[in-house]
Amino acid sequence: MHQVYTDGMFTILNLMAISTGRLVNASDRLVEHQGRLVFKANYFIANIDTTKTSAGSTLNNQFRIPTYSTGSYAFQIYWGDGTEDEILSWDQAEITHTYAEAGVYQIIIYGEFNGWRFVNTGDRLKLITILRWGDLEMGSLDQNFYGCTNLDIQAIDTPILSGKSDYSFCFRGCT
């Protein structure tokens, strides 16, 4: 049985994680605020469109998280299709997810994520909306969202910029 939780803008289900076999309890991710359920502020929430491919991107039913070798990772990602993965390394196979169908999905990342960098490559066109920054840390390197021409930032919280020393081309080419 699935339970649906919503905060008016985002919706999540209790689900059984296929890879781990453990129950992912949505109520652990929600808190009550002013009489409504809202997601805890530390989650990065974004919409992706797998159909927006370009040279160097994954297939039209895939999305790859833009990690890099000097980043630090220990996070869970809910892919928006009922599956979830634990990521502990920048080059782990699970940073690329294959969906049953091409389309728009909402991803949720929670945990330690220090190092997000598109550098005008990869799946930069597939990131279409950032709804919440949460605890995502871009990392110290530059060009984090460079080339994300379809990106619409709707988040009302602010990104974590501690430890960031180079802002060159951080949002170059974004809408």
Key structural traits:
single chain; 175 residues; mainly beta; six-stranded mixed beta sheet; two-stranded antiparallel sheet; disordered N terminus
Describe the overall structure.
The termini are far apart. Mean pLDDT is 79; it is low at 1-25. It is globular, with a radius of gyration of 16 Å. The strands form five sheets. The chain has a six-stranded mixed sheet, with no helix packed on it. Strands 1-2 form a two-stranded antiparallel sheet. Strands 3-4 form a two-stranded antiparallel sheet. By secondary structure, it is mainly β. It has no helices and 14 strands.
Order of helices and strands: EEEEEEEEEEEEEE
Percent helix: under 10%
Number of strands: 14
- Give the rounded overall mean pLDDT: 79
Based on CA atoms alone, the radius of gyration comes out at: 16 Å
Main sheet specs: 6 strands, mixed
- Morphology: globular
